[in-house]
Each structure stands twice: as structure tokens, then as C-alpha cells.
Fold:
Amino acid sequence: MAALVVDGVHAYYGHIHALHGVSIAVEEGEIVTLIGANGAGKSTTLKTIAGFLRPRPGAVFLDGKPIHGLPPHEITRRGVCLVPEGRRIFPRMTVLENLQMGAFTRTDADVQADLDRVFHLFPRLKERLSQVAGTLSGGEQQMLAIARGLMARPRILLLDEPSMGLAPVLVELIFQTIREINAQGVTILLVEQNALMALGIARRGYVLETGRIVLADEAHRLRENDMVRKSYLGEL
Structure:
């Protein structure tokens, strides 16, 4: 049984029908990517999994149990955490306060150990603990957004456009860090405009077009697919 299953999900923004029967599955320990053009429904899929949108109809299952009726904080508590597009850090709070907010659903005694873990992944954040988050660079804010998500101790991390707006050298760093997070046992569902980078680290991928899954395959096969190469990899 897959760890995360999205089953026939339809989603709406008011009267706008954004997702049309989307079904995906993510196995424990995988990196799976969703690729597609702007407006295809990638972020909407993640928001639906995370509880910010309710499927109408459709269902989302974690370890075979439905979670689509739960509020976002309860879905986070159960181990599914969204790192949203645009970082969405708390700009007037310090780096440390942002990280502490990531652990707000937790009552265990291991928060300090997880702070140490994110400082190992992102040593730059440790140097800026008392700095107001809104004054960080774009790359540092993206590091903080991912680190804040990890403070919830997720089993499944939903990453929405982590490389958006970053310089190429920082994109490489972020993707290297995603690999390391996955190697530590965190399952990842990745939405990413940079399809070449995403397919380079993912095991499998899905292609979304206008709210529908039009292609699903192993990542290396998607990289060789003519439609994917032409539409998303910039190859003729």
C-alpha cells in the first residue's frame, strides 16, 4: 500500500473547476514529482493533500486512512507537511521563532534535536538565528521555509516550487538538500517548474495539464518522452 494516495480528486476555487479526477500515489521513501505548466493544477493538488482545499468529490489517504476531511493542522500532526510556494515565512519574526512555529503541533521532547538537524542541513540559518526573517536573502528564506517544514517532523514533505526565483548556484544547493532530506527517510512530493532538475532527483513523475494527469511514468522515462522534452525540457 502506498503511503500517500490521491484518489479521483476534483477541486474548485469557487465555481472554477481546478482539478478533474486527479489520482496519484507516493510510496514510502520516494521522491515523486508533479510537473506541468503554470495553472495546470500542481499547487492545487498539494493544497488539497494538505487540507487547505476539500476534494469535491475524491479522497486523500495516508497509510490507507482518509485525511481529506481533516483540518490542515491535524494533517500536519499526522505527518504530512506543506512547504508552500513563495516561502510564506513570518517576515517580522526571527529565524528561530519561525522554526519554533514549525514545531507548533508537537508535544514531544525532541524539538531541540530537530533544530540541530536543520542547522546541519542549513548551517547559514544557525548563523542568523536572531535575524528578522524578512531581511534574509531569497535563498535563505527558502532554506528557512524548508527547515520550518522539517520542524514538524513530517513523514511526507510536500514541496511547492522550492527553486522559484533563485540563482542557479542556490538551485543546485536546494536540490542537493532535498536529496539529503530524502536520504534521511522523508518521503517527498515535489512540485517544480524546473522539470529537468525535478526529474533528475525523482524516482517517478506525473504530468498535469489543465487539472488532469496526462502522463505518469518512471522519471528517467519521462525525461526521454518526446512530449515532455518538447513541452517542459525545452528540447525539440
Summary: The mean pLDDT is 92. The chain is about 35% helix and 25% strand. Residues 168-183 form the longest helix (16 residues). Residues 7 and 23 are 5 Å apart (CA to CA).
